[in-house]
Amino acid sequence: MSNSWPLVPTHDGSWINRMIQYMLTPRRRRRVLFALWLVLIFCVLAGSLDPHVRMPGFYESDKFIHASAYFALAMLPSIFFKEGRSRLLAMLAMITLGGSIEIAQRFVPGRDASLLDFAANCLGVAAGLSAGLVLAHLLTRFDRGQAAQRSSIASHR
Length: 157
Hints:
Layout: H1 15-23, H2 26-49, H3 59-80, H4 84-104, H5 115-155
Helix pairs in contact: 2-3, 3-4, 3-5, 4-5
């Protein structure tokens, strides 16, 4: 049996470290974040257009929930997309999604469109993009350090 798969124990017990390195590869991370983004988009759509879902009674917390949801919707693609153009298109898509949902809510019984909700969505997108770019930079530095460590270990064998 080959030791290339991460869960095969080795004589020094380093299979846990190899499993963590296996799961944290940049490609796998991008795939997981992309899948999580798609699930989150579905959840926002379902929650926003379902007439039976009620937001909390506090006016301010409703805006906080909007901003938080769109923060996550913007942060994830700003991490997993590498190019600035792709990131920009994802941000425009999230703003368009927020606006489209607000328009669609006019036609859903028990829901109403709100310009302030849309503003909270846009604020969340801006904050999520900023946070995502910082995280993307930190992850790039981490990945470079991991690659340098792996090459150093390989050269000593």
